[in-house]
Give the backbone structure.
Amino acid sequence: MLSLSELLVILLTCLISIKYLKVLWATRSLPPGPIPFPFIGNLWTLSFKLHPVILTKLAKSYGNIYTIWLGETPLVVLNGCKSVRDGIVAHSDALSGRPVASLLKDLLGGKGIFMANGRTWKQQRRFGLMTLKNLGLGKSSLESQIQKEARCMVDLFTTKKGEPFDPSYILEHSVANIISALVYGHRFPFDDITFKDLLKSYHYIVENIGSSWARLYDAFPWLMRHIPGPHQGSFRHMNHLNEYSKKQIEIHKEKRSSEEPQDVIDYYLDQIEKSRDYTDSTFDEENLLAVITDLFGAGTETTTISLQWGLLYMVAFPDIQQTVQKELESVLNGSQVCYEDRKHLPYTNAVIHEILRYANIAAVGIPRTCIKDLRVRNYSLQKDTMVLANLDSVLYDPQCWKDPNRFNPQNFLDIDGNFLMNEAFMPFSGGSRVCLGEQLARFELFIFFSTLMQSFSFHLPEGVNEVNTKAIYKMTLQPNPYKIRGVPR
Ligand code: HEM
């Protein structure tokens, strides 16, 4: 006769074995990959994160489409330019879902653009694209806003008088001010405490989402919701951001008139009114708050980090810095740079593209889900399967770039020195979830970077001889904090 504890052990072993056999059974129909362990899947092999180096190594063993298990959930990884394009570009619509982990679900409630799905995502994304266009993307109003912000940035750099300083906050302040002007209709002065607090809240949330606390929350949401820890801080900071935005929405409601809408909030309030009678409308103030968070969250850190990398690379490769400056001088002769000028500045344009390629700030990219069954490279992927288009493997694909591990603007130039695009240039991803702010980011990077290159020569501080171009892996690939000297030209 078995004792109760022996019976429990046998029962538990049976349960674990059945669960594991189910996982092994599922692997049959999925692309190949390392054998998953019970419960943790391949998390051990991955060192509990989706690191570009580990994912590329796995592709060498299992091919350009393979499966890894994040616990008990399979993730199909597309590796290299061809696989990624065969997936997210060729099946743009079928691969347009977004898996939303528990912490993000609780923070954003499945609203907005980035972490939304289905009808909400479609309507909010379409609104976002239309509004950015209406507010002047490609027209002069936004461009003059960026030029104005670039001049403020130069003034702030000038106050450093060529002494070593960390440029990150000035860059962030300028980039975030562009989003602020678009969303709220105003910019903030440099030392504004409210703005500093808002940016601090965004930092906290982004940092926390990338931490192991967030992974614990995703694994045990029912428990983590009730216990203290840094994850609770994310909710406090999200409230802080929403409170500020709610106040701004109220101010906009009071000030509104029949005049032209001036910013995202104006356009959104109009949209709520226009779609009031449509039962399938998702336009409401909760979605508006999430859209604001998405635009700040996705649009500030990404562009700021790209500029940080840009300045660091110019210090690391002074010959390239000088060639950019010579081109700017000979073409613009000191006049204010505008986006249209990129057509006459092929080298500068190539350098900016190479910064985005080489820095690869989005690392491996952000997972998607299949919203219907589809076939990619002879493998059937069922609805709801999670898929990762590994952007790192595209930006560093040895089939597409001559010497991918070297910073080389020639990657974007033909033999006559004309600008040349490469289909493996995908820092903004691709398909129907491609970065919503790509055009805005391109405008900002071109005008900010070129204006800084026109105004300063960047050098290492006296006595420092080495440039550290190694990245810190957080939610994005960021440079280590650094100081440089900006000597006015
Ligand atoms: C250098 C700058 C930027 C880079 C490298 C970048 C990169 C990306 C990437 C890789 C994605 C994920 C796409 C996918 O699902 O595969 C994304 C999504 C997104 N980005 Fe950007 N981004 C940048 C700037 C911006 C800016 C300035 C904004 C806003 C004004 C923005 C707004 C968004 C939004 C809203 C999404 C979610 C799109 C969706 O899910 O439909 N990004 N971005």
Notes: Residues 98, 113-114, 125, 179, 294-295, 298-299, 302-303, 306, 361-362, 365-366, 368, 427-429, 433, 435-437, 440-441 surround protoporphyrin IX containing FE (CB under 6 Å).
